[in-house]
Amino acid sequence: MPTFSAYDGTQLSYRVHGEGDPVVCIPGGPADSLYLGDLGGLSMHRQLVVLDLRGTGQSAIPQDPASYRCDRLVDDVQALREHLGLARMDLLGHSAGANIATQFVARYPENVSKLALIGPGTRAVGVAITGETRRELAARRKNEPWFPEAFAALEAITQGTGSNWEAIAPFFCGRWDAAAQKHCAAGRPRNSEAVAGFAAEGAFSPEATRTMLTACEASVLLLGGEFDLNSPPRTVAEFAALFPDATLVVQSGAGHYPWLDDADQFVATTAAFLG
């Protein structure tokens, strides 16, 4: 895998899928970026440059654990852009990776042409997701065979009396079949220090970020899944309203990994946006 040196000398790796104009892709987690695959075949339309965040995948573990903080990971994306020799780039962030991508475009607006946020995390802009919003969305799956156990686990997590995150995994997928179960298992974060450090104190400055986004000149796509408990459609719509030029798409029947639930629909939407 190709590598480059981050601002502090940490060696970071990335994968390349396809050919053509590049799209830099930031995974969530922080988790091994392999779970993104080639985003359901998006690499047939654009070259995907998929970053392994520091301490994950093939990227090195940094000497300073404080560098796992979300706002500092923005500097790794900037280093990758410089390494690739791109004056401006198209940027795609999934889940927690959308927090990095959002802070990047807020800090370096001149370096981004198009921004695609998929199942976006919203901590960077301070958009809260209430327990009631998650319950209402979860209740739409009440006819699924796995629902009773998963909903009980969700209630316990919401009330602060439980932490069985694996039990609620079906709520993150449009369908809970063998492929979804394998995908969820492969995409779990492995580096607990990176996960803990990602949202450490100082990682987010929501008010400042929201202010900077009002002047964002990049075209923005926010794509959420109809059933995504992590990024409910209502929340994604609130996020989209923060940008001057944003397209909101809710993919029917999809969860947190829309390229897994319906690759054709996801690729058609995202490829059309990226051009």
3D structure, described in words:
There is one protein chain. This protein has 275 residues and is of the alpha/beta class. It has one domain: Rossmann fold (3-Layer(aba) Sandwich), CATH 3.40.50.1820. The chain contains ten helices and eight strands. An eight-stranded mixed β-sheet has the order 1-2-4-3-5-6-7-8, sandwiched between helices. Helix 1 packs across helix 2, helix 2 packs across helix 7 and helix 3 packs antiparallel against helix 4. The longest helix has 15 residues. It is globular. The relative contact order is 0.16.
Principal-axis shape equals globular
**Tally of individual domains:** 1
CA radius of gyration: 18 Å
**DSSP, total strands:** 8
- The first-level CATH class name: Alpha Beta
What fraction strand? 15-25%
Give the CATH topology: Rossmann fold
List the helices and strands and how they pair.
Elements: E1 3-5, E2 11-17, E3 22-26, E4 47-51, H1 70-84, E5 89-94, H2 97-107, E6 112-118, H3 131-139, H4 147-159, H5 178-186, H6 192-198, H7 206-213, E7 219-225, H8 233-240, E8 246-251, H9 258-261, H10 263-274
Parallel strand pairs: 3-4, 3-5, 5-6, 6-7, 7-8
Antiparallel strand pairs: 1-2, 2-4
Keywords:
Rossmann fold, alpha/beta, 275 residues, eight-stranded mixed sheet
In summary, what is this structure?
With 275 residues, this protein is α/β, with parallel strands linked by helices. Helices cover 35% and strands 17% of the residues. The chain has one domain: Rossmann fold (3-Layer(aba) Sandwich).
